[in-house]
């Protein structure tokens, strides 16, 4: 993938990000292209994770709220402030499901307890869709065929088959993604954080 030839598309996607009305829907391909522009070093497992979260939400229900609170407190205490993230990264085509990035959320002075509440409510109430996952993955495979990712379509298909045998579990970000972007976010349904809606 050559990023120099991608310049016009980057500008276009930035304009889309600020002008699109997510309540009217945006295609899976547009969301994936925006994500790869935002995080060009994404590996196949990072795109899988993006799609998995877009389709199934927070990945598992939260039963131990004390542990989840402690997890967030520890993450905030050790947060690397060198990365500059957007407040929200949209996951779903209807604009409801998002990643809320901790760094800008805290920088704006928002209460982390509100984010914790939204994360727990989303984890325990969001109903995932296997059909949406398959549709999303199909769009990603088409982009891989068009060489929009740093990895090949063959690698993507192989990864899909491997995860299929495991029942499509949640996965961690790649080492490359962790090192480059130091992700710190929570997946939430925006209805639980209405003050963040566009």
Tell me about this structure.
- The protein has one domain (4-196).
- Helix 1 (7-19) crosses helix 2.
- It has a 3-stranded antiparallel sheet.
- 54% of the residues lie in helices and 7% in strands.
- By secondary structure, the protein is mainly alpha-helical.
Ordered list of secondary-structure elements with their pairings:
Elements: H1 7-19, H2 28-38, H3 44-56, H4 65-77, E1 88-90, E2 97-101, H5 102-107, H6 112-125, H7 130-145, H8 153-165, H9 175-181, E3 185-189
Antiparallel strand pairs: 1-2, 2-3
Helix pairs in contact: 1-2, 2-7, 3-7
What is this structure, in a nutshell?
The protein is mainly alpha-helical and 198 residues long. The chain has one domain (4-196). The protein contains 9 helices and 3 strands.
Question: Which features characterize this protein?
Answer:
single chain, about 200 residues, mainly alpha, three-stranded antiparallel β-sheet, 9 helices, about 55% helix, about 5% strand, disordered N terminus
Largest sheet: 3 strands, antiparallel
The tally of strands reads: 3
Q: If you compute it from the alpha carbons, what radius of gyration comes out, rounded to the nearest whole angstrom?
A: 16 Å
DSSP strand content: 5-15%
> How would you describe the shape?
globular
Summed up, the helix count is: 9
State the separation between the terminal residues, measured CA to CA.
32 Å
H/E topology pattern:
HHHHEEHHHHHE
> What average pLDDT do the residues reach?
87
Helix content: 40-55%
Decide which structural class fits the backbone. Answer: mainly alpha
The number of domains is 1
Unreliable runs: 1-6, 8-13
Placed side by side, the strands forming the largest sheet appear as 1-2-3
């Amino acid at each position: 993938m050559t990023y120099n030839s991608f310049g016009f598309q980057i500008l276009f996607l930035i304009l889309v990000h600020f002008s699109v009305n997510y309540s009217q829907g945006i295609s899976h391909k547009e969301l994936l292209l925006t994500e790869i522009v935002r995080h060009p070093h994404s590996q196949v497992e990072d795109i899988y994770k993006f799609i998995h979260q877009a389709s199934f939400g927070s990945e598992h229900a939260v039963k131990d709220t004390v542990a989840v609170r402690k997890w967030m407190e520890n993450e905030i205490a050790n947060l690397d402030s060198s990365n500059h993230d957007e407040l929200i990264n949209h996951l779903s085509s209807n604009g409801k499901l998002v990643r809320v990035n901790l760094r800008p959320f805290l920088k704006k002075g928002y209460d982390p307890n509100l984010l914790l509440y939204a994360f727990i409510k989303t984890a325990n109430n969001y109903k995932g869709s296997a059909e949406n996952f398959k549709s999303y993955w199909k769009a990603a495979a088409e982009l891989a065929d068009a060489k929009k990712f740093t990895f090949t379509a063959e690698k993507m298909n192989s990864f899909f088959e491997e995860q299929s045998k495991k029942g499509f579990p949640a996965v961690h970000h790649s080492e490359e993604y962790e090192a480059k972007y130091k992700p710190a976010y929570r997946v939430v349904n925006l209805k639980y954080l209405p003050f963040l809606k566009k």
